[in-house]
Amino acid sequence: MKKLENKVAVITGATSGMALATAKLFVAEGAYVFITGRRQKELDEAVSDIGSNVTGVLADSSNLDDLDRLIATVKSEKGHIDVVFSSAGGADFMPLGEVSEESFDKQFNLNAKGTFFTVQKALPLLRDHASIIMTGTIATIKGMPNLSVYGASKAGLLVYAKSWTNELKSRGIRVNVLSPGPIETAVFQGNEDMKAHMASQVPMGRLGQPEEIATTALFLASADSSFITGSEICVDGGMAQV
To answer: Is residue 3 in a domain?
Structure first.
């Protein structure tokens, strides 16, 4: 039997990279998936790439009206949710002295606020024993230059996971954070020097692949992780661990 047979999943920010790879794997494992993206062209391409058992919803996770429309679409089409993977996020690489108020607000609105309200608005549709997964970052563990605001905006997700685990335990809803290290996505495209530098910081000597995030997300979404909640799983080749 497939690991997510007859499950309904919502994955935000899934038009490329790690979240798109996760959406593909979830569908392959039997789920119906709702994905979001902020640009219609890329959203349509992702839906076509996934191929079946998918609905694309144009949405910016920092916009609460968009989130309302997302959840209304899920309610209308499927009526419930088994897995929420709040993956939409973004980073501005800026040193302390150059961070603007606009950049600060943008990162907190998407990463901290967007994640919070994605889960809050999905809550009425969540079945008992559902799984909530949030995309964190190892920038909350390592002091990474030029990423102080990004790391801070993601650190709140670790608090969400612990608080919500206690709030939702009577319903058997599990809440975990999946924190990637350097993963070979579009951010590295055309920059071999950056890829080589980042790979040199990873004990395993390479960047991770989006599919390695997807398989971890599948683990957290499925019954395979039935005794794991309130936790952070780092998929970073050991970068933040040793």
So the answer is: no
Domain membership flag for residue 96: yes
The number of domains in the chain is 1
- Domain-located, residue 230: yes
pTM above 0.85, yes or no: yes
Beginning with the edge strand found earlier in the chain, give each strand of the sheet holding 126-135 in spatial order: 54-58, 32-37, 8-11, 81-86, 126-135, 174-180, 231-235
Provide the residue-wise pLDDT of the chain in tens; the chain has 242 residues: 899 999 999 999 999 999 999 999 999 999 999 999 999 999 999 999 999 999 999 999 999 999 999 999 999 999 999 999 999 999 999 999 999 999 999 999 999 999 999 999 999 999 999 999 999 999 999 999 999 999 999 999 999 999 999 999 999 999 999 999 999 988 788 788 889 999 999 999 999 999 999 999 999 999 999 999 999 999 999 999 99
Asked whether residue 216 is assigned to any structural domain, the reply reads yes
Which residue in the list 32, 34, 150, 164 is annotated as catalytic? Answer: 150
d(CA 157, CA 161): 6
Residue 55 has a CB neighbour count (10 Å cut-off) of: 17
User: Catalytic residue at 32?
Assistant: no
Q: List the domain range (segments joined by +) for residue 195.
A: 8-234
